[in-house]
Amino acid sequence: QVQLVESGGGLVQPGGSLRLSCAASEFSLMLSYMRWYRQAPGKERELVAGISTTGGSTEYADPVKGRFTISRDNAKKTVFLQMNSLAPEDPAVYYCNARSYWGQGTQVTVSS
């Protein structure tokens, strides 16, 4: 069964950092452009960041530019999202996406 499994979420203070991971069950998924999305309560799911198959091209939503970094390790079938300077607007469930496949999400909470 094709799966994407996110991990690394948790509770962090404002200004803190978290590193999310998305592990793919099949190498074929790593041949895809991959994205991180997030969805806060009462809001629509929004794109956070995307990365090309080789990692040579990335994109970021304006609210996270300069604070978040997306990367990938195809040999480990994993995509990462390094989140620094976390702010009160960042709490959400973060989802990994490749083609039509979605993970179950990982919760990020920012609170003092």
Can you give keywords for this protein?
globular, 112 residues, seven-stranded mixed β-sheet, four-stranded antiparallel β-sheet, single chain
Note down, in words, how this protein is organized.
The chain contains no helices and eleven strands. Strands 2, 4, 5, 6, 9, 10 and 11 form a seven-stranded mixed sheet that branches. The model has no long low-confidence stretch (mean pLDDT 96). The chain is mainly beta and 112 residues long. It starts with a strand and ends with a strand. It has strands at 4-7, 10-12, 18-24, 34-39, 46-51, 58-60, 68-73, 78-83, 92-98, 101-102, 106-110. 0% of the residues lie in helices and 49% in strands. The radius of gyration is 13 Å and the shape is globular. Strand 5 (46-51) and strand 6 (58-60) form a beta hairpin.
Structure described in brief:
It is globular and about 40 Å long. The protein has strands at 4-7, 10-12, 18-24, 34-39, 46-51, 58-60, 68-73, 78-83, 92-98, 101-102, 106-110.
Topology record:
Elements: E1 4-7, E2 10-12, E3 18-24, E4 34-39, E5 46-51, E6 58-60, E7 68-73, E8 78-83, E9 92-98, E10 101-102, E11 106-110
Number of helices: 0
Number of E-state strands: 11
Strand content: over 45%
Instruction: Report Rg.
Output: 13 Å
The major sheet is characterized as: 7 strands, mixed
Mean of residue pLDDT? Answer: 96
